[in-house]
Amino acid sequence: MALLLAGCARGTTSGAAAAPVPAAGSTESAVTVGKRVAERFRVAALASRRFTHAQLWAALDPIVRAPAFRVTEIGRSIQGRPIRAVTYGSGPTRVLLWSQMHGDESTATMSLADLMAWLGDASDVDAALRARLARELTIVMVPMLNPDGAEVFQRENALGVDVNRDAARLATPEARTLKALRDSVRPQFGFNLHDQGARILTGRSGRQVGIALLAPAADESRGYTGARGAARLVASGLVTVVEGEIPGRVAKYEDDFNPRAFGDLMQRWGTSTVLIESGALPNDPEKQRLRAINVVAILSALDAIGSGRYRAADPLIYDRLPMNARTAVDVLVRGAMVVLPGAPPMRADLALNYDEPLTRTRPRVREVGDLSLVVAMDTVEGAGLFLHPSPAMLDDSRGGARRLRIGAPATFTLRRGREATSEAVPVPPSLSPDPS
Ligand SMILES: [Zn+2]
Description:
Keywords: Signal. The protein has an eight-stranded mixed beta sheet, with helices on both faces. It has a five-stranded mixed beta sheet with strand order 13-12-17-20-21, with no helix packed on it. Strands 15-14-11-16 form a four-stranded mixed beta sheet, with no helix packed on it. It contains ten helices and 21 strands.
């Protein structure tokens, strides 16, 4: 493990020392650079959310060969896949970033790849900031901590264990690898990079959460002492940056202390840790916009930490963030008269969830009845109309009586009348009966 920090005195900062950097310490400039990095250094081989360890490292291999990096195998997964750390810079402030501890949460892995592509680049594109980061920081990145989970795109590792509930027991090699790396690097700052569900809404505005942030608690008292105080300031800076990108779509993650989770224990172990959860944005099924926002957010945070400017952040900006609050359903069909064979039409709301909420495909019936308290991402107004379910939506197992089946594929036609021949009203294409 000593290898990881050995040989840090690489000449990545040559030529930059004389350059005046007054503006480079400002949020605006790091955000501007971040946007440019996200666009110009996007690793094109990672084009969608689902990729394997082999695919990731095939894409990263030519990038991390750059002399600016040290690559270390820090452990192996249950199935023997190497877990690697990529280190950049030789500054006194050490920052540890790890992604995809949950195998199906890949957004920030793509962002780390893009950042690496820029950090290792030899051209002069935003080279001043790159050189300054190398001088101020030692950045240790672990993209894809749980490669076995990523292989089958599941949250848990190959044994079915949630690695983020294994920070205390350290029963899994993936958790032991991260803990050993932390103990070796002794980072002052940490970034725990995850994805959260697509159906979570902010408390205040009820918008879908694009990014949720948390400076995790280090103990039950949830005070902002020790490492957590600095983490809160870093998080405040992140709120400002991300709100600038997706106003009203930033929330605070649940703040309960979890004595088995890495974010919480990292904080307790003395590493000021911020959790970044990529949620979902409209029309971003592969989370490519969120990938770019992560690049901007992480780069701005690195800049703020390196320059020390994070200390000037207003903690109230973080404190006032609305919580990850309500869970929405994907679609609510409100107020239609439902036409069931052999029964009079019945007024009922329908809640539907897609099997794939990001791509909005394969809707299923979730709930039927008076759903006036249900919050939905999309609402289809059915008042005054008749909802004719497709046969797949009906259950006829009970003595011939046909009723709506919870969990059934939710495809239907909205018509002006109760007769199957009456005029149809357009519904979103994903809800229309399959013409086959
Ligand atoms: Zn996660």
